[in-house]
Structures are given as structure tokens and as C-alpha cells.
């Protein structure tokens, strides 16, 4: 495990640089000390794969007046998460867990608009569980919070396609489109430009929007 001191030494210099880019910055950590330091420096969002279960983590977020927070489902910790992957109903269990963690924040007077939920694709789940979460993803919206989903390059895509991690671009884009089509508000991706292009086409096909009228015009040949 990485100590608090080591994590701070790694994260804060990178965070200082990221904050100069003029975009919202999310810090991925489970440690309340790192959360507090990052938020004090100017981070906008805390992303916690333990859903603020570490002692002091809930208070670290609740004490900040505006930061966003992403709560993820995972059994155990990364080193042991694949050791217990038995579920009666994976969608129901993930939904109940995330709803309970969001309630813990709401009980500390954190505005619901600051909360995003992540089902934790690939974290303590087999390929079948991950696909079930995708098929029934709209059920995860029941607690009433936006959903963030990360399918990019995940091992389940390798199971489905037989492709190595570096060759999963097409599968990652397909999964991102399926996730958005099933209600995801945010997708976490490695290949940003390609995913944006795919989503633009998806939106144009879905929406009857006057802004897409240009696609019916002939190209401006000289």
C-alpha cells in the first residue's frame, strides 16, 4: 500500500500542473488526508473507488462547500477484489450499495447535485456481472443520481473480442455508446477524441436537431 506521505508527494505536484489547464480536475484517492489536501489546493472532484468508506473520508468531502464526488462500487480492495465475486443479483446489490453511500453523504447535508455514482465495471466482478450491469444499467439510475461508467479497455472487452489491451479501441467505443444509450451521464475513456466523434454521430442519429441539417448539404466543391 502507498502511504499518505508518498501519495501526497506523487499527487500534489501533478495536481498543481493540472489546475493550470482551466478544466475541472478530479483526484482519485481513498485517503481523507489526500482528499483534504487536494481540495485545499483547488481540485474540483474527489473520485473514490471505496465510496468514502475509509474513516474520515465522508467528512473530508462533506466539509468542502462545493466539490463533486464520485462514489464507486467495489468489493474489498484492489488486491483482493476478485476473491469474492458471488452475487445473487449484481444489479440490485450494486444499486443498493451506491444508494446507501450517497445517503451517507446526504445525511451530512451534501447537496445531491454534487454526487455521481459509478457501478465499478471490472472491480470485484466477472465478465458476466459487468455485462449484466450494462444490459440493466437504467436500473442503476433508480437512486436519482447521474451515472459515470468506465468500460475503456476493460478485461471484459478482451473476453468478448479476444483482443489485447492495446487493441480494444473499437470495443471500448462500442461499450461507451451502449452505456450512454442506457443512461450514463459520463463515460471514463482513454481515447477521448475517438469517443467524442462516435458520440457526435450517435447524437445526430438520435436527435431531430436543426444543427444537423448541414449533413444534407452537398460538399463545397470548387
Written description of the protein model:
This protein has 222 residues and is α/β, with parallel strands linked by helices. It folds into two domains: 149 residues, TIM Barrel, CATH 3.20.20.20; 57 residues, no CATH class. It contains eight helices and six strands. The strands form two sheets. Strands 1-2-3-4 form a four-stranded parallel sheet, covered by helices on one side. Strand 1, helix 2 and strand 2 form a beta-alpha-beta unit. The longest helix has 17 residues. The relative contact order is 0.08. The model has no long low-confidence stretch (mean pLDDT 94).
- Helix-strand category: alpha/beta
Q: How is the quaternary structure best described?
A: single chain
Structural domain tally? 2
Report the principal-axis shape. globular
Keywords:
single chain; 222 residues; alpha/beta; TIM Barrel; 2 domains; four-stranded parallel beta sheet; 6 strands; 41% helix; globular
What's the short story on this structure?
41% of the residues lie in helices and 9% in strands. The protein has 222 residues and is of the alpha/beta class.
Annotate the secondary structure layout.
Elements: H1 4-18, E1 26-28, H2 32-41, E2 45-48, H3 57-62, E3 68-72, H4 90-106, E4 115-118, H5 127-135, E5 148-149, H6 155-161, H7 169-181, E6 186-187, H8 192-206
Parallel strand pairs: 1-2, 2-3, 3-4, 5-6
Helix pairs in contact: 1-2, 5-6
Amino acid at each position: 500500500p502507498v502511504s499518505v506521505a508518498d501519495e501526497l508527494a506523487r499527487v500534489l505536484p501533478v495536481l498543481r500542473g493540472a489546475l493550470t489547464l482551466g478544466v475541472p480536475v478530479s483526484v482519485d484517492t481513498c485517503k481523507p488526508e489526500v482528499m483534504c489536501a487536494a481540495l485545499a489546493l483547488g481540485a474540483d472532484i474527489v473520485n473514490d473507488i471505496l465510496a468514502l468508506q475509509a474513516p474520515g473520508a465522508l467528512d473530508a468531502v462533506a466539509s468542502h462547500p462545493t466539490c463533486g464526488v464520485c462514489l464507486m462500487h467495489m468489493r474489498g480492495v484492489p488486491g483482493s477484489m476478485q476473491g469474492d465475486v458471488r452475487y445473487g443479483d449484481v444489479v440490485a446489490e450494486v444499486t443498493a450499495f451506491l444508494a446507501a453511500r450517497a445517503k451517507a453523504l446526504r445525511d451530512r447535508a451534501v447537496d445531491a447535485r454534487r454526487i455521481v455514482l459509478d457501478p465499478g465495471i471490472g472491480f470485484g466482478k466477472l465478465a458476466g456481472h459487468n455485462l449484466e450491469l450494462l444490459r440493466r444499467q437504467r436500473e442503476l439510475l433508480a437512486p436519482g443520481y447521474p451515472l459515470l461508467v468506465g468500460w475503456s479497455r476493460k478485461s471484459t472487452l478482451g473476453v468478448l473480442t479476444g483482443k489485447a489491451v492495446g487493441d480494444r479501441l473499437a470495443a471500448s467505443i462500442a461499450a461507451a455508446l451502449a452505456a450512454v444509450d442506457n443512461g450514463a451521464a459520463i463515460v471514463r475513456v482513454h481515447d477521448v477524441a475517438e469517443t467524442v466523434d462516435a458520440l457526435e454521430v450517435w447524437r445526430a442519429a438520435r436527435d431531430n436537431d436543426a444543427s444537423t441539417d448541414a449533413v444534407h448539404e452537398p460538399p463545397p466543391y470548387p
